[in-house]
Amino acid sequence: MRFGVVTFPGSCDDRDARAAVEHVGGDAVALWHGDERLPPLDALIIPGGFSYGDYLRCGAIARFSPVMAAVRRFAAAGGPVLGICNGFQVLCEAGLLPGALLRNAGLRFVCRPVRLLVGSTATPWTRACDPGDELVIPVKHGEGRYVHPDPAGLAGEGQVVFSYAPGDNPNGSLAGIAGVRNPAGNVVGLMPHPEHAVDPLLGPTGGRALFDSVMAAAVGVTP
Amino acid sequence: MTEAAVALHRQLGLTDEEHERIVAVLGRDPSLAELAMYSVMWSEHCSYKSSKVHLGGLPTDGPLVLQGPGENAGVVDVGDGLAAVFKIESHNHPSFVEPFQGAATGVGGIIRDILAMGARPLATLNSLRFGDLAEPPQRRLLDGVVAGIGHYGNCVGVATVGGEVAFDPCYTGNPLVNALTVGVAPADRLLRGRAERPGDLAVLLGARTGRDGIGGASVLASAGFAEGETAKRPNVQVGDPFQEKLLIEACLELVEAGLLAGLQDLGAAGISCATSEVAARAGMGMEVDLDAVPLREPSMEAWEVLISESQERMLALVDPERLDAVVAVCDRWGVAASVIGRMVPAGDEGGRLTVRFRGELVAEVPCQSLADEGPVYRRPLVAPAPPRAGAEVPLDADPEAAVLALAADPTCASKRWVYEQYDRYVGRGTVAGPGSDAAVVRLPGSRRALALATDGNGRYTRLDPVAGAALAVAEAARNVACSGARPVATTNCLNFASPERPEVMGDFAAAVAGLGQACRALGVPVTGGNVSFYNESDGRPVHPTPVVGVLGLLDDAAKAVPSGFPRAGLDVWLLGETRADFGGSAWQRLASGRLEGRPPGLDLDAEAALQRLLVELAAAGLLACAHDCSDGGLAVALVEAVLAAGVGATVAMAPVAGPNGLPPLAALVSETPSRVLAATEPDAGPALGAAARAAQVPLRRLGASGGDALVVPGLLDLPLARLRDAYEGALPRALGEPVPAS
User: pTM (2 decimals)?
Assistant: First the structure.
């Protein structure tokens, strides 16, 4: 299964996302921010980091990069897209996901493993999970406080994919929302870093569920 | 010589004698640009003029050392065709003047040193010292420095994986901010900061040159502070981690494509330093065209361009035939690349650096005179007074209160508040991160891992500089050995007050002697480092604080040994002998508020035997946990071991007190070195015993892990929740912030 991983200038977790893909048995394809066309892909990851330095609003510049037009087409065609941390911010800025991400409530960067509860499983990235499953995945961000005008409505539509477990909300996100999906379900974004949670040598392995889900989905296996 | 010129060289930090020496080298009065170049290159910070005569005695050779002191960073052969590149540097004064940018640019600078060797920076550790957090300015310093380190390291995608933070009133007017970075490169692809042949082009990469950081090395780093020194704020550089990230990726792509002859970072003394050093190392000269340097401010003068310390710049040495390919890579990453110079053959009198600007020759100096032939001072020194025995500490305190007080002491307590602001995951290498004895970082594409620890106890060194420096080496190496890794090399950052004080030079010489003794005995050669003098404010010097970083090798990352008890039902042991060592201890500080006596006695042979044993036990898979006893002694080691995974323990103190008949509290708080708290599966006891006997390391069984309290029967019974509240709550409380729920 071929995963495209976008590199913007300032991306930091792009190499890690590719390594995680290889670790779980996928093939990683490096994509460049200037690419206007994508090679054949089965899934697409917008990784973490500080695209273009993020000196403006996080992700506000990246949404205008040439590759994003191709990402939109891939998403519109139903391809599975995962935005991680900065990638989540980029997808929100691009209007591919609802809501926005603001400065952490504590006003500091926070790096720690958190417990996540799976909400919607109607996405290629959580299909192998059951609602309520607990995944331990690290966060590392300064601007991860999720806001949305109608979080209850979002939850009602089944668009909340991940919530921080009670007591684990690291940034003051509204309703503890850690990750959301688009109405179609193929585009998912989350602040925690599943690519840093696949190898037991390096810590918790909650991220495997996302990769296992999308890989199972791609070969048509119903878990 | 005119009055104005005299005033100018003094303003630039040069003495009258140094000025005369420049005149002698050139055979004429220096131009303004030349004077500026000499002022920064001959500064204490760049020239090591006061420390050089003492550093020669350090051991620098070893079977694994590929590059010792003298290059941008030290290099060690780590097997599998890989080389580890590492170095530590200070950014103390910039961090005091402007904590956020000072600390941030310190991280950026050490990362570029590693990059200059052609290595990908993998991880950073920080060794920080501040005054008492009860004082609001100290809280602001801590906050700013930590935010700055996090901002820069997080944005460039280099994991921050460890280090230490300690607090002592001596650092009130002069905090210490030392950063160590380690990187990795294929051993056959290492670069040196030198050109290969005449005709090679000097290509300036990265940021534009501005007026920031002018005189950072000379005015800021090479003098002490007095009241009202915020006027030095313009001397502090401003960091742009995004630019550095692009620079890192572009340089690594250039290195991987084999397009560079050499690479040099621009740090202290900027273009002056980079150009003269690469030419001097290659034994050539260089013609520099300053008009080709992209400027932030077109009104800059030649001398400003030459000594600006604008960040995020590198100097690449490029064969002219490869220039187009180099520019193409830089364009792709959006990194500016400007040819600013050309290597020329050396003449009879060595290589010359000629600098042109706006149609004029502004400088023409021998490269060696700038880079290598600066003044060398044998400063007057007074040997430190021999330490006096007899440090009495109260040993009748309530043991529970004593353990809780140590756990809640900011120097001993959890640094979670600090390290949760740092990305420790990026790079997918962090096997053990902050909070562990040593950081363990897996090498990309290999089963092997590097282990790194930094240590340095200014209180010990204040009491006895020889012993204090040796203890720093021993502790850092022991921390590395606790992780299961074999210590193989060291780097050091020697933080001292003014070298113009004979007593400071005496402490310095003694500390270097102590470093040398310990590095030799423990088999860890020195591959590089940094001397930071003038760490004093208003005449109040910091404790002499040598900070030592030790690099270790672990053949199998999966065999890294944790620092805490991972589960219940393990046997708990103490390796090493406990004596009555209270001089300079955390307990002495807490219980008496004094600093007196001898620091803990160190037997280097016993230390070496212990470290070899730890590596052997880890390789055999016998250790479930190994944790060094240092600040706060066995008490703090036990607290940390039980809190790591929330697994309590019941241990006895009688085996620790042993034949010496130490009182129970003394056994808990003594800081005798060469001791390690360990845990094994119960069936590993005989093998452990046999190995310890063979190594002649004293071994005592203390008890077993399990339960939800730390229990010493008859002495204390502390629930983990109380310990956690004390240990984890200390820093947030000192900073007036919410204490995390346990």
Answer: 0.95
Tell me which residues of chain B, numbers 459 to 518, contact chain A at a CB-CB cutoff of 8 Å: none
Please state the ipTM of this predicted complex: 0.96
Residue among B243, B422, B426 whose CB faces A13 most closely: B426
The more confident residue out of A188 and B220 is A188
Q: Are B280 and B351 in contact (CB under 8 A)?
A: yes
For residue A153, give every residue at least 6 positions away whose Cβ sits within 8 Å of its Cβ, in sequence order, or none.
none
Regions of chain B where pLDDT drops below 70: 1-6, 193-195, 215-235, 659-660, 741-742
Q: Using a CB-CB distance cutoff of 8 angstroms, which residues of chain A are in contact with residue B557?
A: 201
* A12/B151 touch (CB, cutoff 8 Å), yes or no: no
* Distance separating alpha carbons of residues B505 and B70, to the nearest angstrom: 22
Judge residue B291's burial from the number of C-beta atoms within 10 Å of its C-beta, 0-12 exposed, 13-18 middle, 19 or more buried.
middle
Say how many domains are in chain A. Answer: 1
A109 contacts B428? CB cut-off 8 A: no
Catalytically annotated residues of A: 85, 193, 195
B714: CB partners within 8 A, 6+ apart = B664
Q: What is the pLDDT of residues A85-127, one digit of tens each?
A: 999 999 999 999 999 999 999 999 999 999 999 999 999 999 9
**Residue A122 is assigned to a structural domain of this protein:** yes
Domain covering B1-60+192-375: architecture: Alpha-Beta Complex (3.90)
Q: For residues A213 and A216, what is the distance between their CA atoms, to the nearest angstrom? A: 5
Domain extent for A90 = 2-218
pLDDT digits (tens, 9 = 90+) for B664-719: 999 999 999 999 999 999 999 999 999 999 999 999 999 999 999 999 999 999 99
Report the pLDDT averaged over residues A165-178.
97
Minimal CA separation from A195 to chain B, in Å: 9
Q: What is the DSSP string of B570-633?
A: -EEEEES------TT-HHHHHHH----SPPPP--HHHHHHHHHHHHHHHHTT--SEEEE--TTH
A8 CB within 8 Å of a chain B CB: no
Question: Six-digit token pair at B30?
Answer: 């220096």
3-state secondary structure of B470: helix
Name the superfamily (CATH) of residues B382-413+563-742: PurM-like C-terminal domain (3.90.650.10)
Contacts of A138 in chain B (CB under 8 A): 425
Domain borders along chain B are 1-60+192-375, 382-413+563-742
The pLDDT of residue B738 is 85
Residue B536: other Cβ atoms inside 10 A:
21
Residues of B in contact with A55 (CB under 8 A): 242
Q: What is the pLDDT of residues B239-287, one digit of tens each?
A: 999 999 999 999 999 999 999 999 999 988 899 999 999 999 889 999 9
- Residue contact A10–B430, C-beta within 8 A: no
Indicate the pLDDT class of residue A219, thresholds 50, 70 and 90. Answer: low
Residue of A nearest to B245 (CA): A10
Whether residue B614 contacts residue B487, with contact meaning beta carbons closer than 8 Å, is answered with no
Distance from CA of A56 to the nearest CA of B (A): 12
B interface test, pick of A32, A111, A114, A196 with most B CB neighbours within 10 Å: A111
Inspect the interface and report whether the beta carbons of B426 and A12 lie closer than 8 Å.
yes
Residue B550: DSSP 8-state: E
Contacts of A52 in chain B (CB under 8 A): 242
- pLDDT attached to residue B245: 97
What confidence tens digit (pLDDT) does each residue in B31-68 have? 999 999 999 999 988 889 999 999 999 999 999 999 98
Write the CATH number for A17. 3.40.50.880
Indicate whether A106 belongs to any domain.
yes
Cβ neighbours of B425 in A, within 8 Å: 16, 111, 138, 140, 193, 196, 202-203
**Residues B276/B41, Cβ–Cβ less than 8 Å:** yes
